[in-house]
UniProtKB/TrEMBL annotation:
Organism domain of life: Bacteria
Annotated spans, Disordered: 137-160
Family matches, as PROSITE patterns: RNASE_H_1
Location of the RNase H type-1 domain: 4-144
Biased composition range(s): Basic and acidic residues: 146-155
SMART domains associated with the record: PGAM (SM00855)
Protein name per UniProt: Bifunctional RNase H/acid phosphatase
Amino acid sequence: MSPSGLRVVVEADGGARGNPGPAGFGAVVRDADSSDVLAERSGALGVTTNNVAEYSGLIAGLEAAAEFGAAEVEVRMDSKLVVEQMSGRWQIKNAGLRPLAAKAAALVRRFEKVSYTWVPRERNKHADALANQAMDAAADKPTAAHKPEKVERAPRASWEPPATVPTRLLLVRHGATELTAQGRYSGRGDVSLSEAGLAQARATGARVAALGAPIAAVVTSPLTRCVRTGEAISAALAGNVPLAVEPDLVECDFGEWEGRTFAEVRTQWPDEMDAWLASTSVAPPGGESFRAVATRVRRAVATILKAYPEKTVVVVSHVSPLKLILRDALAAGDALLHRLYLDPAGLSIIDNWADGGVAVRSVNETGHL
C-alpha cells in the first residue's frame, strides 16, 4: 500500500525500568483522516535509558510510515525532550542520543512534511502499552497487558545479497571549469568546461565504458558543464546511448555568493555563512537552501528510477545535488554535506532496489583521472 499523498499520524513512546534498565519501545501508525491503525511496532532493547527508548520508538514509527509511502507525518509523543530536539528548538547535548537523532533526521527527509506534537501520556496510551509490553520482554517478565492482534517489528538489517536486479546509478560530478580551479562558488552560472575539465570528462567516459555494463541513458543537469561532460561519456560508450536533461539536477542557487571565492564570502558574510553551515534550511542571501535542493533532487532520482528499472544510468550533476543523493543513500546526517569532498569528474556508484534497498558501492572514485 503506497497511496499518493497519504497523511499519517505516528504515535511513539519508549521507556526503561530503572533508567537505565530493561527498556523497550512502541509505535503506532494511523491514517490521519480515519484514525485507522495501519501498523504497530514494538521491540525490546535490553538495558538502556528512557531517552534512547523514546528515540527508538520514533525511529520505528518513521520507518513504518515510510514503508506505507506516507507523504506527510505528524509525530505525537509524550516525550518533551524528543519533540523539542527533533523540532530544532533544543540542542542535543547527550552524545549518546546524537546518532539516534541523526537516524531519525535521515528518515524525515523521505517525507514531504513532518511535524511534531507533544501530547500528555494519557493521549499516548496505545504506544505506551506497546512500549510496556516490550519492557516486560526486556525484563523477561511477560504480561497480560495490551496484546495487539498483530505487532509488526522493525525490519532487521541484513548482509544477505538481494536476489533481484537493482537500478544502478553512476553518479558523476562534471569536469573542472575555470571557477573550479579558482575555488569560487559556481551555482547557476552557465560556465563551460576548461580544457582540463574536458579531458577529465573523456577519462570518466573511458572508466564508465570499462565497467562493461550496458548503459541505458546518460542523464544530466541542464547546465553546459554537465551536458558537455555527459556528451563526452556518451561518446566513449558503444552503441547509441541517449542523453537526457533533467532540470532538477541543476546546482544549488548560491545567490549573492555566485562567482565569489570562499574566502570572500567568509569575509563579507560571516554570520550568514555560519548560519548556512549550521542548517540545511538556511539559504545564501538571494539563493536556495540545501533543503530545497534536496526536495527536487529526490524528485529527480525517483523519476530516473521509475524510467529505468533494473538498468544502469549515468547521472551527471554538481557537488551539492550529488552530496545530497549520497547523504540519503548512506542514511547520514547533514554534517556529511560539509565533510564529503567530490572531485571534478569523480565517480560514485549506488544500487537501488525496487523494495527500497540501497547499497553504496563507491564514493568519489578518481583513479581514472
